[in-house]
Specification:
Number of helices: 3
Strand content: 35-45%
Order of helices and strands: EEEEEEHEEEHH
Number of domains: 1
Distance between the termini: 37 Å
Structural class: mainly beta
Radius of gyration: 15 Å
């Protein structure tokens, strides 16, 4: 049995996707500004954000104004993940290879930490899809557009926002 994995589509100040990987009793988390890409080798900026509790992996709903992450959260993908080697050591070294077994994202991926820039508050990483059977060629349809709805409820971000009290 693998470790918990999820991606949440998050309509906060601006739309992004939050990658969450269970490690050490928490969800290590990265905000992916343009969302994940299935095109092998395509780099997507992933900014490290604070860890979350394991129960947050399946969260879908609206975070109220004034709270951290305020906005609509949609459970875009979920499943399990398996690190290639020692995940904690790989993250500390700045290069983690892993395999996803999600409902939308599968196969081999990499997170690579970028060199820090001046005035950078949080570490920046690159999320990169490896060349494998789950990868798509350049110019192929974007999975984010093909499958925008929740894996939990089938709802859209707009549906979730409209249902909020």
């Amino acid at each position: 049995m693998g470790l918990i994995y999820s991606v949440q589509k998050h309509a906060a100040r601006r739309l992004h996707y939050d990658l969450r990987l269970e490690l050490g009793g928490v969800l290590r988390s990265w905000a992916i500004t343009r969302g994940p890409s299935l095109v092998a080798g395509e780099k997507r900026l992933a900014v490290e954000v604070p860890d979350h509790g394991l129960d947050y992996a399946g969260y879908e709903g609206v975070i109220g104004a004034g709270q951290y992450g305020a906005g609509v959260v949609l459970l875009w993908d979920r499943g399990t993940w398996e690190p290639e080697g020692d995940a904690a050591a790989a993250l500390a070294a700045g290069s983690l290879g892993f395999i996803l077994a999600g409902e939308k994202l599968t196969g081999r991926w990499h997170l690579r930490r970028m060199k820090p820039r001046s005035r950078e508050r949080r570490p920046s990483w690159l999320l990169i899809k490896s060349e494998d059977a789950a990868a798509r060629p350049p110019g192929a349809p974007d999975i984010l557009e093909e499958q925008p709805r929740s894996v939990l409820t089938g709802r859209s971000v707009e549906d979730i926002a409209a249902a909020a009290p």
